[in-house]
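Predict the 3D structure for this chain.
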Amino acid sequence: MPAINQSISNKYVYLWVIGYAIAWILASFYLDPTVPYDTVEAVNWGMNGEWGSPKNPWFVGMVMWPAIHLGISYSFYWYFIHFIGIAFGLLGVWKLAYRLTGRRDLAWFAMLMLNLSGVINFDIIPYNDNYILVTFWAWILYFFLRAVYDNPAWWLLFALCAGLATMGKYSTLALVGSVFLLTLFVKQVRQSYRHPVFYLAIALWFAIVLPNFFWLMASDFSAFKWVDSQIDPGFNLHTTQAALSVFYPLIIAAIIVYSCGGKLGWPKPLANRMVNFIILFPLVVIYGWFSFHDGGRITEWLQPFMAVCAPLFIGSITVMPKKPLRKPLIGLAFFGVLVLMGYSIVQSANIRGAGQKFIGVKTLIAEGEQRWHQRYGTPLKYVGGEDNLHQWFIIYAKDRPHVIQPWTLEHHMPPNVYNRDITEAEIRQNGAILLGRKYDDCAHENFDKVRKYWPQFTIEKEDVIYRSEPDAKPETMCFGFIAPEK
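Done. Predicted structure below.
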């Protein structure tokens, strides 16, 4: 780590984050057998192009537009946007930590300590929203400090990042709410109300967020009801277990700091205390609430906080380390390389089936698309089915079909993957391929779910053999065909 406390070291920050992104994009794209189900959701939401979705605001789907409209491989694009976002977020962590401490070695420490966490690599891949928070949250805090201490014009970038992050996942509202409280109760922040640009920033944030609010009103607030459906009241220890599984790198980092002669505490500089409040106040509220409300997704909620807690941790060092941090920094950087190597070995060696997980769905989709073309000789435009397995046609079918599941608010819960504009005329003209329930052959498959919405169509059937993975037991499934009009 050459010259870490000199300005020349700044260029190595860019080299690190760019190299990190390229390495993880390539490793994931070439070694991960299939993309996660969240990819199906994000692509489908992007196809519908609405100001919201059944689970998230609109930005998750909009990010997928380049892949949808430019024909980019969904698999490659999924890893590309995740690790480009992570790289941008890591740079924000470095910038924020440097702003809080004025020391480049501590900024490096904040960024590299995240190598101890899976939040910035393999743990982030399955989510279509968490990577957006890791991308923006550190920058939100950084732009907040620049707006308060340097120039109110920085509020515009704060509003842009905060608005996009809010439209990635509603939990960003926790940070925005904390900042709002600071504008009321902290004199230095309250002075922002004297500057016209501050109100322009407020207008920008609302311009980004309000379309989703109106969409929610028109959609029975389905996204909030989905979140509520995942939570049951009752005291539990799952939240504590999740917190330990997410924030353990802070414990390791604390050991390193103390072993180097440093100490941690509540920081004296107001800037450090304010960013601590912005993150820790909602984090304590979330921890307390989930301790009495059992939600299986609490780990997912907490993971983005880990990324932004790294610079807060560095900003909370009250006694600076007396020993140089060169060796710990080299160790943390080397550990990041080891994690990448470990991931690559596990995937390429197919340890515990990791390198072949769910890979059979690609073969199944290719078989279905081939049969469609042999039957009708036309592009496959629509797909339907009895469970979510048919939705993978969206990702892996070359024709990139859309589902025939219509939007509905039955039981106040819309379908997760849907087609807002589908009509009988469209299906009649273009036809559709259907996929039955897992492991049911055509003799037992009536496509009841499809017939519930489209009882007017005749369905022809063909059996197909499906293996979810090469070593899995072969099972018979059923393809259904709604023939297109000639």
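Residues 327 and 383 are 56 Å apart (CA to CA).
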